[in-house]
Automatic annotation (TrEMBL):
Domain (Mycothiol-dependent maleylpyruvate isomerase metal-binding) ranges: 15-139
Signal peptide boundaries: none
Pfam families: MDMPI_N
Top-rank lineage group of the source organism: Bacteria
Protein name from the UniProt record: Mycothiol-dependent maleylpyruvate isomerase metal-binding domain-containing protein
GO molecular function: metal ion binding
Amino acid sequence: MRNSLTRATLWSAAATERAALADDLAGLHEAQWAQQSLCGRWVVEEVVAHLTAAASIGALRWFGSVLGARFDFDLHNDRRLAEYRGATPAETLEWFQQVVTSTTSAPGPTAAWLGEVVVHAQDIRRPLGFVRTPAVETVTEVARFYARRDFTVAGRSTIEGLRLEATDGPFTAGAGPMVSGTTLALTMAMAGRGAYCDDLTGPGVLTLRDRCTT
């Protein structure tokens, strides 16, 4: 099933999730900003700076940055992250707050950029012990996109040969050994976050966990 929400609705959902994350970040102390996230080698502050960069750089700047990095996407991301990381965590947060309602993005489907916000927000929250579940309708759109294609994450490859069924919404995908859980946990697992496999059940979980990257 293709994404059913309009582009405007997807951007509105992204703004809602950015605003919720900004609220969560407002009370962090210095050690929490330096907490390791679920996103590879990045700490919390770096993930926030990455989200700010993603909402600040349009197609032309993105292409220029990628070309300048000779298509080394890790280098591209690190350069843009450094650009949008403030001198202090407070400044990093201030810059993020300024892009809460942004509809600027790199080329690609809007569902992918909504997914960036949803996934990276959980990359931050889970290690900090914060709990927020976005609207099921919002996460379902991201889950459907991830299951359909490999783009910002290798979602389709990660679930190949598996059957996913959400316990809290309409999302289903694939065929094979069952993996069930909340739409958010399934989405995070498709994004390679192995920690969320702890929240899933079914005979396909071990296979899915083996395919997760972090």
